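Quick one: structure tokens for this chain, please?
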Amino acid sequence: MKTARAAPKTIDEYIAAFPPDVQEQLEKIRKTVRKAAPKAEEAIKYEMPAFLLEGNLVFFAAYKKHIGFFDTTTGDGALSDEMAPYAGPKGSLKFPYGEPIPFGLLSKIVKFRVKENLERAAARSKKKTK
């Protein structure tokens, strides 16, 4: 019988709930995002780790057979081509356990998302001052 566990309040709590090999991969993803977006805030949203910078930046989560990475990239042709081999449902990326995670690609995605979010925030700010 499966018991309900309490929803994590921090990314540390979230990561600690997984086996050591999965924890290691989740920590590497976390460090990759932190390095690419040092001003982003860590949070838990939808019961998964999230990074916020002028709105949602990226999310990641561990599942039974893979780690999912979620972003809301509106489109960059070069990135789309690089992301294609890892494409999951609804624009997510899936990294099966036992296969290497493309941390360089994750870094590019996060940097692209930072640029997108900052540009959107600047545009909103301009509209408010008119």
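The helical segments are 11-16, 20-36, 77-83, 103-129.
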